[in-house]
Amino acid sequence: xxxxxxxxEDAGYIRRITIARAEKLxxxxxxxxxxxxxxIAAALAAEAVRGIVLTGSxxxxxxxxxxxxxxxxxxxDQGRELARAGQASVFDVIHHATKPIVAAINGFAxxxxxxxxxxxxxxxxxxxxxxxxxxxxxxxIPGYGGTxxxxxxxxxxxxxxxxxxxxxxxATEALDYGMVNRVVAPHELLAEAEGILKRIVVRSPSAVAAxxxxxxxxxxxxAQGFETEIEEFGRCFGTPDFTEGVAAFxxxxxxxx
Length: 257
Ligand code: COA
What we know:
This protein has helices at 30-45, 68-71, 76-96, 112-119, 146-154, 156-165, 171-177, 189-201, 205-218, 223-236, 240-250, and strands at residues 6-11, 14-19, 51-56, 61-63, 101-105, 108-110, 122-126, 130-132, 169-170, 182-184. It has 257 residues and is α/β, with parallel strands linked by helices. The protein folds into 2 domains: 6-201, 2-enoyl-CoA Hydratase, Chain A, domain 1, CATH 3.90.226.10; 205-250, no CATH class. Strand 2, helix 1 and strand 3 form a beta-alpha-beta unit. Residues 24-25, 27, 64-69, 108, 110-112, 134-135, 138 line the site of coenzyme A. The site of coenzyme A (COA) has 16 residues, from helix 2 and strand 6.
């Protein structure tokens, strides 16, 4: 597959995948999700690749969420399908990947962007990064596993505060919460993320895979939680709040719920 929205570069055992739609803050549209699904699968299948770094292009954003314009007119069924297909083709594949995937968060990681980082095994953030799940301001909830993975990572209280307020936190706060493993200066971000992988890729690939499977297995059986998230996410698309929230974003004004 030739990618229109991704850059893929290899250095030794490490593959760097960069989402390259900086003018829209790397928002995840259908084309990017399809390319990401293909690129992750290809990296997992490639024998020469033992670790993956996922990052965003430009200085401003890792990923500012799912593409709001693309789902603005969706109904409940389409909303549910959006979440289900995205989780199955990208987010769950990353979560269950048996090669380590490190998110290098170079700026805004919002909504689906933060969920993408949360699906990765390890997260490194640049000091100016901002992280949040702002879906409630659109009349939505996170739909790519955020209600489950954020809660697993930071606990119910902090997860609910972030999900219900929709507020962003700084990289330093994210470090304090345990949401990111490290915070570094922006110019050190990729070297830091790849530095972690360099130490992993010299270990036994079969043991690394086994360790990921074991850790994932112990993270609790959240299958019901993910299913509830998909159902509730879909239901949101049938509400007047969703219509108002998305219209407000596209018209660059505050929503009136
Ligand atoms: N979907 C679609 N387009 C998006 C987007 C998204 N999630 N996030 C940003 N963009 C677009 C903007 O519409 C804008 O496009 P334009 O130049 O054609 O008008 C461009 O990216 C730059 O964003 P802009 O809003 O002008 O930058 P800013 O610095 O003023 O604000 C943010 C940055 C991240 C605070 C703001 O873009 C934002 O709130 N984005 C949406 C975040 C969100 O709700 N994500 C969850 C989606 S479920």
